[in-house]
């Protein structure tokens, strides 16, 4: 029987489900979130599981680094990420804190590589996000990340732009992060309207200053397009005013 | 003059400084804008592939000095401009809010006197920090010859301070920068080293050397770097391939900047700082310049083939670091993983080891990946040269490898 187990989309509910399956010696065919479209051959299973302090358990057994890496994998857009986490956790209960030494295990290798990709993308976006000022006081930026970076970026900008109102929109997932000078709230893009916004008067002037700076700072004698693209792949360019025109 | 015009002039004059890092500091504005990220963040990459992290500008490109290699020397007739402190704050804050930059890198030509210039820099940064409560990254140049009191004041406001040594020997300085004395730069570095703390230049100090403007060998350059790392605990020495912006009988005429040489120096710099190499391991009096064809670590390994191949599952951590194609991260991974299982070549690949370089120098479980009869210097060397990514450009024509 192709049992597909469904979790309710949060990281902790996924961990709880995986923990439950392992404790009951159930080997899942697949684990999927609530948006899963089942096929004829699937047997979709919703389990009512008692929530427990699963994050605490993982930190105690496998260390906080493991939990962090698992969270990054959860944020990725990798197809079978839930199963990878299942096998990772299964081995974690066997090797505990030594789990990362076992790089010859496929699940460990995958977790580390996927986590690295997600971390890299989040880090790149910390630099590449471009805000525009609207209505003379609201900063607005759009991103289109492969992995779900919005929360990590919001934590970053909350610390950095704490006295500003800002909005970051994940265009791909249609999610908005709204910051009100105290806390950020991630909401569905359909529940919040972005009408009535007007670019601030100064905006064009400042954008021109930045473009002029960008044009000037490169050294002609050292021109190196390959190097630039390695560090700043074209997928980011769409929302970056200084290179948008080169696309 | 329009602000945009000034920005163009003063960014153009600042662009030859190689440093752009924004790492090493953990500050946060309490009641204003800005915070630093310990790892540093790159916000864009310029057409030359260099990272743009900071708004890199000069306060002014007017200068009373006449350093031969410098675009801003007194005797050049170029457009001159001067930012007011308010203008610098305005641009920095507007760029920072929109996440264009990680902070400010402020340098300046010498106006009137070193003290006068330094006071202007301090005035600007004080405004930024105290009036606008800016908590982002600030890297500022210390002006050689300015008083200790001003250095102390500036150091408390910035994350990083730097003073550029520019040329590795006193003779080079005398020839090309007669107004500069290495004594004055040493004094700055000594002072920063003695006073560095969480409140004074928390991200440490760095410096820069121009490569290829004078006749110094790589050995002289590396010795200078090693001495500065040791004596002044510098965070970084930057190397900047000389680009001819001026015509002068004392300056060399190079068709292309010596980028590959610069690259080799950076590689060697890393070997000194993270791989326990000494300058003498890499270069000596008979062999004072780096091999342009293979990187310094491979070059060293080729000269010490009797110490290789090393067994990945047994050799010490120090020895792992000496193997070409293995970096600090992969050495650590190997070291911790081999305690729990015996590594194969496949596992090495997974750990990020660059097998195309390391395969000549290692055994895994006492197996050599290639035919053991190929373990010869000539064979390995020619293969490693082919592995080098960038094709060689004209810059090497003058080098011994071709002309001998």
Report on this model:
The complex is a heterodimer of chains A (247) and B (404). With 247 residues, chain A is α/β, with parallel strands linked by helices. Chain A has eight helices and eight strands. In chain A, the strands form two sheets. Chain A has a five-stranded mixed sheet with strand order 4-5-6-7-8, covered by helices on one side. A three-stranded parallel sheet of chain A has the order 2-1-3. In chain A, strand 1, helix 1 and strand 2 form a beta-alpha-beta unit. In chain A, helix 3 packs across helix 5 and helix 4 crosses helix 5. The longest helix of chain A has 23 residues. The radius of gyration of chain A is 22 Å and the shape is globular. The model of chain A has no long low-confidence stretch (mean pLDDT 94). The C terminus of chain B is likely disordered. Chain B has two domains: 280 residues, Alpha-Beta Barrel (TIM Barrel), CATH 3.20.20.70; 92 residues, no CATH class. In chain B, 38% of the residues lie in helices and 10% in strands. In chain B, helix 2 crosses helix 3 and helix 7 packs parallel to helix 8. In chain B, strand 10 and strand 11 form a beta hairpin. The interface between A and B is large, with 53 and 58 residues.
Topology:
The complex is a heterodimer of chains A (247) and B (404).
Chain A: E1 2-7, H1 11-23, E2 30-33, E3 42-46, H2 54-62, H3 64-75, H4 81-95, H5 106-128, E4 132-134, E5 138-143, H6 150-160, E6 165-170, E7 175-180, E8 184-188, H7 203-217, H8 225-231
Parallel strand pairs in A: 1-2, 1-3, 5-6
Antiparallel strand pairs in A: 4-5, 6-7, 7-8
Helix pairs in contact in A: 1-4, 2-3, 3-5, 4-5
Chain B: H1 3-12, E1 44-45, E2 51-52, E3 54-58, H2 85-97, E4 103-107, H3 114-131, E5 137-141, H4 148-155, E6 160-162, H5 170-176, H6 182-195, E7 205-211, H7 218-232, E8 236-241, H8 259-274, H9 279-282, H10 296-303, E9 310-311, H11 317-321, H12 328-337, H13 345-350, H14 355-358, E10 362-364, E11 367-368, H15 377-387, H16 400-403
Parallel strand pairs in B: 3-4, 4-5, 5-6, 6-7, 7-8, 9-10
Antiparallel strand pairs in B: 1-2, 10-11
């Amino acid at each position: 029987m192709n049992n597909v187990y469904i979790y309710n989309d949060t990281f902790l509910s996924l961990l709880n489900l995986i923990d439950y399956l392992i404790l009951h010696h159930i080997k899942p065919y697949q684990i999927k979130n609530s948006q899963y479209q089942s096929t004829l051959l699937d047997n979709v299973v919703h389990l009512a599981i008692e929530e427990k302090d699963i994050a605490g358990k993982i930190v105690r057994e496998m260390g906080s680094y493991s939990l962090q890496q698992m969270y990054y994998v959860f944020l990725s857009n990798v197809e079978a990420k839930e199963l990878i986490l299942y096998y990772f956790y299964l081995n974690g209960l066997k090797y505990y804190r030594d789990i990362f030494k076992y790089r010859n295990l496929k699940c460990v290798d995958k977790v580390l590589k996927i986590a690295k990709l997600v971390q890299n993308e989040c880090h790149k976006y910390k630099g590449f996000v471009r805000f525009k000022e609207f209505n003379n006081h609201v900063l607005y930026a759009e991103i289109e990340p492969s992995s779900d970076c919005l929360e990590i970026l919001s934590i970053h900008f909350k610390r950095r732009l704490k006295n500003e109102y800002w909005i970051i929109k994940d265009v791909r997932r249609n999610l908005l992060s709204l910051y009100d000078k105290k806390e950020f709230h991630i909401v569905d893009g359909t529940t919040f309207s972005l009408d009535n916004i007007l670019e601030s008067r100064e905006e064009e002037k400042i954008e021109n200053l930045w473009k002029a700076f960008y044009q000037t700072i490169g050294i002609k004698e050292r021109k190196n397009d390959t190097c630039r693209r390695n560090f700043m792949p074209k997928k980011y360019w769409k929302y970056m005013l200084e290179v948008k025109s080169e696309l | 003059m329009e602000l945009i015009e000034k920005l163009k002039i003063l960014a153009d004059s600042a662009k030859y400084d190689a440093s752009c890092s924004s790492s090493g500091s953990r500050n946060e504005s309490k009641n204003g804008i800005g915070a630093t990220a310990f790892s540093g963040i790159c916000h864009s990459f310029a057409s030359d592939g260099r990272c743009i992290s900071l708004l890199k500008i000069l306060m002014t490109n007017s200068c009373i000095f006449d350093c031969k290699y410098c675009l801003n020397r007194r005797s050049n007739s170029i457009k001159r401009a001067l930012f007011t402190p308010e203008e610098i704050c305005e641009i920095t804050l507007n760029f920072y809010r929109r996440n264009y930059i990680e902070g400010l890198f402020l340098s300046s030509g010498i106006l009137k006197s070193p003290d006068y210039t330094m006071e202007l820099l301090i005035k600007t940064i004080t405004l930024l920090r105290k009036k606008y409560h800016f908590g982002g990254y600030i890297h500022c140049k210390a002006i050689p010859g300015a008083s200790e009191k001003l250095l102390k004041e500036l150091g408390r406001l910035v994350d990083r301070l730097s003073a550029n040594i520019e040329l590795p020997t006193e003779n080079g300085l005398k020839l090309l920068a007669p107004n500069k004395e290495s004594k004055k730069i040493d004094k700055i570095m000594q002072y920063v080293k003695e006073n560095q703390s969480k409140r004074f230049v928390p991200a440490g100090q760095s410096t820069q050397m121009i490569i290829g403007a004078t006749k110094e060998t790589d050995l002289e350059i590396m010795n200078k770097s090693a001495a500065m790392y040791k004596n002044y605990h510098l965070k970084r020495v930057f190397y900047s391939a000389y680009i001819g912006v001026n015509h002068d009988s004392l300056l060399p005429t190079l068709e292309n900047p010596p980028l590959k040489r610069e690259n080799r120096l950076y590689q060697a710099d890393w070997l000194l700082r993270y791989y326990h190499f000494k300058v003498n391991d890499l270069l000596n009096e008979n062999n004072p310049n780096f091999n342009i064809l293979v990187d310094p670590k491979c070059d060293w390994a080729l000269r010490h083939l009797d110490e290789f191949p090393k067994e990945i599952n047994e050799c010490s951590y120090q020895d792992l670091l000496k193997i070409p194609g293995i970096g600090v991260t992969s050495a650590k991974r190997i070291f911790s993983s081999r305690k729990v299982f015996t590594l194969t070549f496949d596992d090495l690949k997974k750990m990020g080891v660059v097998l195309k370089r390391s395969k000549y120098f290692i055994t895994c479980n006492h197996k050599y990946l290639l035919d053991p009869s190929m373990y010869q210097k000539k064979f390995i060397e020619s293969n490693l040269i082919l592995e080098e990514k960038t094709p060689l450009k004209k810059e090497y024509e003058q080098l011994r490898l071709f002309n001998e």
